[in-house]
Amino acid sequence: MIKVLLVEDQAMVRGALVSLLGLEPDIEVVGEAASGQEALTVALETKPDVVLLDIEMPGGDGITAGARIREALPACQVMILTTFGRPGYLRRAMEAGAVAFLVKDSPARELAAAIRRVRDGERVIDPGLAAAALSAGPNPLSPRECDVLAAAVDGSTVGDIAVRLHLSEGTVRNYLSSAIQKTRARNRIEAVQRAQAQGWL
Amino acid sequence: MIKVLLVEDQAMVRGALVSLLGLEPDIEVVGEAASGQEALTVALETKPDVVLLDIEMPGGDGITAGARIREALPACQVMILTTFGRPGYLRRAMEAGAVAFLVKDSPARELAAAIRRVRDGERVIDPGLAAAALSAGPNPLSPRECDVLAAAVDGSTVGDIAVRLHLSEGTVRNYLSSAIQKTRARNRIEAVQRAQAQGWL
DNA sequence: GCTTGACGGTGACATTTGTCAGACGACCGG
DNA sequence: CCGGTCGTCTGACAAATGTCACCGTCAAGC
């Protein structure tokens, strides 16, 4: 029996995935969690063989949760199951020690197959996605540029961002400007969208 | 047996929901579709009692697909199952003749329960969501303001939008300005986000 | 018939945003 | 110890954005 911990914030999707995995005779869902925080707690309680993690969740994203779990339970394999196949997500997931990266677009039966391949010591990564992640290259934005761009996603003005990050307005404008150029965008909105599409924020 | 057509673009979620409904002895998934267009075709083939529709899908959104299906098959009940409980979505879904509106945050067992309640002629709507939709009031944006705001989501400049909608730049600026005021935002980015949060785009 | 609102437009204006050049200290690798 | 990068800041400038006042048409409603 492969013991699986399932981490996904949308309760109905989580329940549906449990029932999907319930069809497999050699897979047992030993725990569920709805956030990154909760994931670590439940992992320590249930000591699963495999954790299946969503990325975008309120209360701790799946990638950092995966890293924490690997620290605490080195025997436990981390798999990512996400809606968005963003190159930066894949890259960060791999750096955090994940051994599989699945997107929810792929057919349902691939989930159990991927879990078994992970149990057998394989890595499971969509080849097209891997190519995209490699060809896109690493995140060109400096940490601070990321901060400023991330602070701009909600439509804040330069003044707002400056206050929030304790910077001068000119500095904020400079970071935004260089982020716009590095993303080859025409304004901050495009810059934010491109950075998000790459998984850089 | 209640015959259900399941419409959801993410294959893995769709498959998981099928397996979830497969646990219910009185429910049978007679068809699946991954887009609004496909939904209508499959509905005509399979003549389900109930269609379960996601809203945000590439290739025709679920609400208009639901309206089309109601036209073609008046006996078929339309249920919406969506990630986002946006007031405007609920309102539009009701106007399009939907009898249920579920969010994927709610527990998995509520899905089958909701389907049975719909079979019994009931409507199923989250009370809190209904209150939000009523208190928020209807969409204050004029159709054209919606168009212009929707054209601004991807970071297009005023000039781009003007060309795309065959308008003068001044007109575009005027519509954006009035949309910003009606949404009580400070700039177009906030306006877009508030309008999206309400489900007005 | 008159009013109202949506639609489309113009022109002027203030503000915000984006760009550039430059300056300073910190830190890191060679 | 020297060059490069990063972070921070300033000041100045051009371009884009947001606001306002105003004008016209047209269709719907009272």
UniProtKB/TrEMBL annotation, chains A, B:
The keyword Hydrolase does not apply. InterPro entries: CheY-like_superfamily, Sig_transdc_resp-reg_C-effctor, Sig_transdc_resp-reg_receiver, Tscrpt_reg_LuxR_C, WalR-like. Residues 134-199 form the HTH luxR-type domain. Pfam families: GerE (PF00196), Response_reg (PF00072). It comes from the Bacteria. Keywords: DNA-binding, Phosphoprotein. CDD domains: LuxR_C_like, REC_DesR-like. Residues 3-119 form the Response regulatory domain. The modification 4-aspartylphosphate is found at D54. GO terms for biological process: phosphorelay signal transduction system; regulation of DNA-templated transcription. One of its GO terms (molecular function) is DNA binding. PANTHER family: TRANSCRIPTIONAL REGULATORY PROTEIN DESR (PTHR43214:SF42), TWO-COMPONENT RESPONSE REGULATOR (PTHR43214). This is DNA-binding response regulator.
